[in-house]
Each structure stands twice: as C-alpha cells, then as structure tokens.
Amino acid sequence: SRASVAFVGLGNMGTPMAERLVAAGHEVIGFDLAEAARERLQRAGGRTAATAAEAAAQADLVILMLPNSGVVEAVTIGDGGVLAAVRPGTLFIDMSSSEPLRTRALAEAVAAGGARLIDAPVSGGVKGAVAGTLTIMVGGAEADLAEARGVLEVLGKPALVGPVGAGHALKAINNLMSAAHLWVTSEAMLTGIAFGLDPSVMLDAINTSSGRSGSTQLKWPNFIVGESYDSGFGLGLMLKDMRIATGLAESLGVPHTLSDRAVEHWSTADAELGQGADHTEVAKWLRQQGRA
Ligand code: NAD
After folding, report:
1. Helices within the chain (DSSP H only)
2. Region 4-163: CATH code
C-alpha cells in the first residue's frame, strides 16, 4: 500500500533511496539542509518541505539518513525537532549509521513523546541504494518492522537482528571489518604490484582464494584499479563507524588492539586527505607513502 514517507537527509545515500520510494509510488516529502539536494528530489517527482518538522508533520513514517547520532538527535529531539511535530504513534526509522547506545536512549525519548523508533542501517553503498539491493539491519520490535517492511523492501532486504540499537551495533561492527580489510588489502595489493604482478590477475586469483573480501570483490575492482575513487562513501564516515565499534569493544571489555591500530591509520589518512575524501582514497594515500 502507498505510504506517506518523510525522508530527512538527501545525501549520497538518501537521494537514490528517496528516488526509489518515489518510483515505487510512495508519497515522499523530503528535507535536506542543502537546497541542491531538495531540488534533485523535486526533479525526480518527490515533494520537499522547508524544514524536517514540516516534512514529518503529515507522514506515516519518518526515515532519517543523516551523518551521525549527533545530527539524528538534533533533528529528532532538538529545538524545533521533528518529534514535536509528528502525529501520535508515528514510526521513525533511523537508517543512518548511528551509535547504538545513543539510539537506545533516543528511542526512549521518542517513546516518551508518543512515537516509536527503530534502527535500520544499511550496507551496499551507493550502488546498492540505486539498485534497491541494500542489506538492512533492523533493530526494534517485530511489529514495527512489519509496519515498515513494504517501504524497506523497496530499498533492499530488511532483517530483524535484535532490539533497538542492535542494527547500529551490527553495522558499526561490519564497517570496522570492512575498513581493516581495505587497509590490509591495499598494502598487500601494492606489494604485489611493486613485485610486478598485474592487479587484475591478482584480484581474479584472490577472489577465488581465502584472501577475498568486499575489498577485493568490489572496492579494488570498481573504485581503485581505475583510480576513480568514487564509491560515494566518505572517509570520515567510515572512521566514525570504526570508532563506534572500537568504543563498543572497549565498553564491553573485549580486546581491540588491532582494531585500534586500524583506527590510528585511518585517522592519519583522514587528516592528510582532508574533508570530502572518499574512503577508497586510502589506497591512493598508501601508494603515495611508498618509495615506488
Ligand atoms: P552524505 O554526507 O552524503 O549525506 C548526509 C546528508 O545529510 C547531506 O546531504 C547533508 O546536507 C544532510 N544533513 C546534515 N545535517 C542535516 C540536518 N540537520 N538536517 C537535514 N539534513 C542534514 O552521507 P551519506 O553517504 O548519504 O551517508 C548517510 C549515512 O549513511 C551515514 O551515517 C553513513 O555513515 C551511512 N552510510 C553511507 C554509505 C555510503 O556508501 N555512502 C553506505 C552505508 C551507510
């Protein structure tokens, strides 16, 4: 059935996701601070509002696809926030990669305000957002997922992974692994290249061998070999996710020594590559550190 969806955060991920919902026949009312992002959604047939609260006021569902927990909290329960504007019982779906413990607290604040919140972060990148093939890791009540399922299935494959916050925990854990893989894969690939091996010969062999990962199957072939570095996932966002995961390990008393080294390396690259760098540029940065 046709849902009325407020979509807040029309960036690299939010734009193609909102466009899919429009194409599937849902009523989408979008908001982003960036005017260019709002205009892009209008051209795709979506409506836009002047504020997030205005977008959410008439919606059944409020999807948030924002940078981090700080922004999600400000938009939801900050001054002029969305919570005060929605109809009672409105379902919030935080699809951003936020911090699980802050998500739990936010869900309580949202419940106290008479609404509901589930977390539903995604994996699959901009390509997956465009194709509607995202992995969607849902934390929350089964009944809430049932209500959101029709809309989420336009974007990818939703699966309930636990109570509120569980999706955000799992997403951060996935990205810590993904980032550590990309770093070691890049050091290893550059070693092979310096030895004289052809990168595509290496990737073909590795992709049917035990060294394979998303970094060898997707990131190196699509964004690094051809030096386009245009995955659409910012380096700073990846670093945020790594810190969420190592923070969880620390607070739960789980060892995280190699993970901490990965965070250090990624922070150095982040500082040197500067704002706006794509996360795949760590491979370019590593190449520049070498003698070759
Ligand atoms: P992005 O930086 O491209 O988009 C974020 C958008 O939020 C921007 O358009 C920005 O203008 C908007 N925004 C910021 N503050 C706002 C506010 N107060 N009100 C309204 N809009 C505001 O980021 P993205 O790549 O789309 O990622 C969004 C989230 O999804 C992040 O948490 C990220 O970690 C996660 N994620 C990204 C990818 C990817 O491949 N890009 C994949 C999976 C998950």
Report:
1. 14-23, 35-43, 52-56, 69-77, 100-112, 125-131, 142-155, 166-195, 199-206, 214, 235-252, 257-273, 281-289
2. 3.40.50.720
